[in-house]
Amino acid sequence: MSDLLFDRLGGIEGATRIAHDLVDNHLKNKAISTRFADSDIAALKNAAATFLIAGTGGPDVYKGKDMLAAHKGMNISALEFMAVLDDALVALGKNNVGQREQEEVLFALYSMRSQIVLV
């Protein structure tokens, strides 16, 4: 098996499923769902999937903004950020992602905290 996290997540199909489940979790999460009220959900799912694909060692298919530019001025709180991580953990579990891979994804997401929270 490949050492790439992308491959261990199931490649394009696996990363896409995880990302779509993650967005679905956000839409149901009362702590953050209002942030997505006026969003194009299909575009959001596509951005999440391509971000996860590119960010885990897959093809460089992400064409969106960097995290700082995407979240600047949104005043996202630490609690909202943790809600996103919780939603990610649920999506990873739903897709039977192994413990090591879950930890790697959460570490990568948490490493972006300074570019997202209160920027």
UniProtKB/TrEMBL annotation:
Transmembrane segments: none
UniProt keyword annotations, A-Z: Heme, Iron, Metal-binding, Transport
Cofactor entry: heme
Keyword Transport set for record: yes
Positions bound to heme: 71
Gene Ontology molecular function terms on file: heme binding; metal ion binding; oxygen binding
InterPro entries (UniProt xref): Globin-like_sf (IPR009050), Globin/Proto (IPR012292), Globin_bac-like_CS (IPR019795), Hemoglobin_trunc (IPR001486)
Pfam families (alphabetical): Bac_globin
Keyword Heme tagged: yes
Protein name from the UniProt record: Globin
